[in-house]
Automatic annotation (TrEMBL):
Keywords: Lipoprotein. InterPro entries: Calycin. This is Apolipoprotein D and lipocalin family protein. PROSITE patterns: PROKAR_LIPOPROTEIN. It comes from the Bacteria. It comes from Phaeovulum vinaykumarii.
Amino acid sequence: MSRVIALLPLLVLAACMAPGPQGGLRDPQARISSAVLFDPARFAGEWRVMAAPARACAGARQDWRWRDEDFALSGIDCTGPAPARLSGQALLVGPGARLVARGGYGGGPVWVLWVDQDYRVAALGTPEGGWAAVLARPEAARRADLIDAAREVLRFNGYDPQDLTW
């Protein structure tokens, strides 16, 4: 019994380092971080999906309404193989821009990996690597410089932007 107890910390550590799900979008060996300086009130509002795994999601609308402790989500959910109705909430759990979704985004953690200083374009992803997306405000959808920056942030966090539909 004492041998099992002694091995328990190693087993827990090994579970934390296990590779992501088969066919994931992210290299499980890469480091990942969320945006540190994040203002949920500025993030709130209408977004358009610029890139996501689901093929028919380009241009899909998402609304993130801030309610002082969580976001009310509506629009189109692009986390699955096909677009679906997005209706739920995302609770800010921190540090930084780390959220837990309920009723959307697969019900798991969603991190805002990066958002530009004017909150026009954002890169989002799940830490285990099963999903990532680039969102843009309707008026910023043609900002190639910001979209390219979001691609680079995805690469930096271990995602391959080529796995997304743009």
